[in-house]
Amino acid sequence: MILKNIFVFALVTVSFLLSCQKEDTVEPLRDVQEQSIADDQSIEDFLSSHFYNYDDFSDPDYNGGIVFDTLQNENASKTPLSSQVSKQVISVKTADGNFIDHSLYYLIAREGTGIIPATVDSTYLSYEGLLLNKTVFDSSSTPVWFDLTSVVRGFREGAHKFKSGDFKVNEDNTVDFFGYGQGAIFFPSGLGYFSRNSGAVPAYAPLIFKINLYGVNQTDHDGDGILSADEFDNDGDGVPDDTDEDGTPDYLDAD
After folding, report:
1. Of 83, 101, 156, 191, which has fewest CB within 10 angstroms of its CB?
2. What is the pLDDT of residues 196-240, one digit of tens each?
3. Contact, 125 vs 72, CB < 8 A?
4. Number of domains in the chain
């Protein structure tokens, strides 16, 4: 539900965020840079106080998911997430043309054996979305197809960190997946919904997504023979390119 109803441009410019504010909003729009710093601290606090079930993933036959728990009592000696995640700095362009850095953290429990999706490809995955208090706000245990151009930027960039897997069709027509990428991504509100309330996600909420990436289809949205990955965002500002300025992004413009 949450991922399926996202406008792709929702969080790449502050101008859009301003347009999403209701006239009767009591709280003024927060400063993007200050919020980025605050969110980053909240995420780092979570990462330093939690671990995941990495012992399970050391077993090649383990086919379960990621579980987070706190570093206390019998788990006090576990390795914290902060020692196991990687970090990518992503710049978000504001309405005045400035760029504000946001940190995306990603945990690779299993890298996967297939291909890495471009940030605009179609992905076949299961997921679970959580707030930092570990409240689940959305999930799909059954794999679903997501066009990464239709999700928030943090999810789009995060899915790009994993590889797909492979599958086999059994005699009873059921499908078994194997060798797929598994992990989690952690990102600030500026790569999510920022000031918007979206379903069970409150405004200014950093987000966590657990991801199992099963398959990838490379996309050519406008059917012009050029992969969308080569037309979507060549200047790296997070906004789809519109080279001829006709109002239609290049990846959707066969012209």
Report:
1. 83
2. 988 899 999 999 999 999 999 999 999 999 999 999 988 888 889
3. no
4. 2
